[in-house]
Specification:
Blueprint lengths: L6 H23 L8 H12 L8 H21 L4 H18 L10 H8 L7 H22 L7
Helix pairs in contact: 1-2, 1-6, 2-6, 3-4, 3-5, 3-6, 4-5
């Protein structure tokens, strides 16, 4: 019978809850703005569950989220097409750019949808994207490097 390792999923779940909890508190209990986006939840899976994945590395998390959110903003404000055409084009363009620039982070593939459907402003890139991603990475480094003593980032 295969031995089941329960420590890894417990630690991943705990740090996911802590990280999203901090972003939630900053969003709802301060006047600093929004720190949460849905795709950050998916980032937790990679960062805390599979930190050795190339998709979980800091440059991929940070630039993947930034790039695809920027693509969403560009399409939202500069491409005059119906939303049912805009959404798939923006996602496709964002995915292609992440792969081309070697900053692929699968959860970020949904960011153009979030940006376009939410009709966000350019400020969205600063908060939640840049600041939220940096907070996520700080928790990733704390867990993986300082607590678990893993080589992270690779």
């Amino acid at each position: 019978m295969k031995k089941v390792d329960v420590v890894k999923p417990i630690i991943a779940g705990l740090f996911s809850a802590i990280t999203i909890g901090v972003l939630t508190l900053l969003t709802y209990k301060t006047e600093f703005g929004i720190f949460l986006i849905a795709s950050f939840g998916s980032s937790m899976v990679l960062l805390f569950g599979y930190p050795e994945s190339p998709f979980a590395q800091p440059k991929n998390i940070f630039f993947g989220h930034l790039l695809t959110s920027f693509v969403g903003i560009i399409f939202l404000y500069m491409v005059p097409l119906p939303i049912y055409v805009l959404l798939p084009l923006a996602v496709g363009f964002g995915v292609a750019l992440m792969i081309l620039l070697n900053v692929t982070h699968p959860p970020a593939g949904g960011n153009p949808i979030i940006v376009i459907m939410g009709s966000v402003s350019l400020d969205y890139l600063i908060n939640p994207i840049i600041i939220g991603s940096l907070i996520i990475l700080i928790f990733g480094i704390i867990l993986n490097r300082l607590i678990l003593k893993k080589k992270y980032p690779l």
